[in-house]
């Protein structure tokens, strides 16, 4: 069964500090992996997409990595800001199968940035 | 460009009542889907549609009906609400080339 596991479940850090969120998956055959940011009371918004051939991709202070061999991805946030407080959801897409629509969702990491 | 619009944002129902959550998108995406989000459970797929006239069940379809008469609209119907359907519901459409999901702002439903 395709699965996506995220860690930690929740994380509290001080403003200005860096942090790394983890996503491990067993989705096969792998197509791509996307990180979404969900602010409280809002819908998720895509941050970045990783395909099989990509190891690292940056979007401002967000840097995603992908190790297709170990089936692991990370999202690194540099110099955190209060606006980074949100849930971060890892979603893996299968070439076929996976969820009914080919997507397998992680349960998310809830990040709190304290001033 | 409005993206994905959901209504209502909040709704309180009594057990056994029926209601429809509305979802509309203006990006001409063929694929649309409904999810529910519960604490500790993440987003779970209820129903999805790959185009007008075509719908299919997701992971947790029981108690919900959908229809897709146009590309723009994908309403979710609760025929007889139960307390277990208390949740936050998200509608999404999917960009065909990148696969990116565009979510609405969510509808918070409480069933008493």
The assigned structural class of chain B equals mainly beta
Question: What's the N-to-C terminus distance of chain A?
Answer: 41 Å
Radius of gyration of chain A: 14 Å
Low-confidence stretches of chain B: none
Backbone shape of chain B: globular
Number of helices of chain A: 0
Question: How many DSSP helices of chain B?
Answer: 0
Number of strands of chain B: 11
What's the SSE pattern of chain B?
Answer: EEEEEEEEEEE
Mean pLDDT of chain A: 93
- Helix and strand run of chain A: EEEEEEEEEEE
Overall mean pLDDT of chain B stands at 95
The major β-sheet of chain A equals: 6 strands, mixed
Helix content of chain B: under 10%
Keywords:
heterodimer; A: 115 residues; mainly beta; globular; B: 112 residues
List the helices and strands and how they pair.
The complex is a heterodimer of chains A (115) and B (112).
Chain A (H helix, E strand, L loop, with lengths): L3 E4 L2 E5 L4 E7 L4 E9 L6 E7 L4 E4 L2 E6 L4 E6 L8 E9 L8 E3 L3 E6 L1
Parallel strand pairs in A: 2-11
Antiparallel strand pairs in A: 1-3, 3-8, 4-5, 4-9, 6-7, 7-8, 9-10, 9-11
Chain B lengths: L3 E4 L2 E4 L5 E7 L5 E8 L3 E10 L2 E4 L6 E3 L9 E3 L8 E8 L6 E3 L3 E5 L1
Parallel strand pairs in B: 2-11
Antiparallel strand pairs in B: 1-3, 3-8, 4-5, 4-9, 5-6, 7-8, 9-10, 9-11
